[in-house]
Amino acid sequence: MSENNDTKDELAGQQSLNEQVVRHHHHHRHHRHHHRRRILKNIFWWAVGILLLFAIFFATIAWRNLKVTTNDMYNSAGITKQRDADKVLAKRRPVSILLLGTDTGALGRNYKGRTDTMMVMTLNPKKKTTTIVSLPRDMKVDLPGYPDESPAKINAAYTFGGVKESVKVVHQHFNIPIDYYVLVNMGGLEKAINQVGGVDVKSPLTFTYGGVSFKKGTTYHLNGKNALKFSRMRYDDPQGDYGRQQRQRLIITALLKKSISYETVLNRQFLKSIADSSQTDLTFKNMVTLAKDYRQANAKVVQDHAQGRGQNDDGQDFEVVPSAEQERVTTLLQNSLKN
Predict the structure, then answer these.
(1) pLDDT, tens digit (0-9, with 9 covering 90-100), for 79-130
(2) Model-level pTM?
């Protein structure tokens, strides 16, 4: 009986020892597995950290390059503004931009020229509306800084006094603040359109210009070269220069819809392609704010123009915009700048 008890005790002791060995082995394996996981986790976070440092490094370089590129485009033009435009932009309030287009940089032209395209554009993020109003290139005006040269065509303001005089004369005749300006020659516009992959426009009439044919009501995807042809034709348009203004607005609107985005503003290739043919008093920070906070203004686009009538004055042809029409345009633009 005693021997049986001893045997049972030995078996119980052996079983207990085996259980201890198993527990120890399991604990050791668990400890090694946990240690290995911790090493792998550390390696993972080290790799993430290194990649993050590289990303920050290259992003900093890219950001600096973008700032350098936009700095090449920046020119205050000596303009005295009617309000603090940067504060207006910082508060996400409606802003106005004078768009000026010259015929230099295309068809072999490289002289200063005149601003054959003049548009006042307002961006209202709250109303989600962009308003674009074209001004007749031959509009009869008195130049604020050049009384001896007055009366003159509004596009001559740039010839005599640059962008500064252009801003002055628009403000004088339409009584709205001009917060910023963008001056681009036709060569720059062609490059910008190519950089965004072309633009889509519906032709308002049937015509052929520069070997390219357009049919009324048909939508075309145009590269930069053909977009210029679409917007340049004037003499075969029943509306003359007003018809050309309409097609110019179509091109500008299509380009804005594709280019006023965070991705495009931060695209150095896009900015670099137009830097040598563009000028603006928008800083890089301003551009980022517009792309980030004003993109919704493209939801609705209102297009209009100041209508004049032809008049010959001492052998020079002008477009005279009556006071009532100027007041109408002023009211439209002022309302578009209201929240």
Answers:
(1) 999 999 999 999 999 999 999 988 765 444 455 678 888 999 999 999 999 9
(2) 0.77
Contacts of 250 (CB under 8 A, 6+ apart): 201, 202, 204, 230, 231
CA angle (25 as vertex; 19, 27 as ends), nearest 5 = 100
Start-to-end Cα distance in the chain = 104
Task: Let me know: does 273 contact 195? Beta carbons within 8 Å.
Answer: yes
Query: How many C-beta atoms surround the C-beta of residue 81 within 10 A?
Result: 16
Residue 317 and residue 312: Cα distance in Å, rounded? Answer: 5
Q: Rounded to 5 degrees, what are φ and ψ at 307?
A: -90, 125
Bond preceding residue 136 cis, omega within 30 of 0: no
Token code pair at residue 157: 């303001």
The confidence band for 192, taking pLDDT boundaries of 50, 70 and 90, is confident
Q: pLDDT value at position 26?
A: 52
Nearest-angstrom CA–CA distance, 277 and 186: 8
For 259, residues 6+ apart whose C-beta sits below 8 A from its C-beta are 192, 196, 270
**Rounded to an integer, what distance in angstroms lies between the CA atom of residue 199 and that of residue 252?**
9
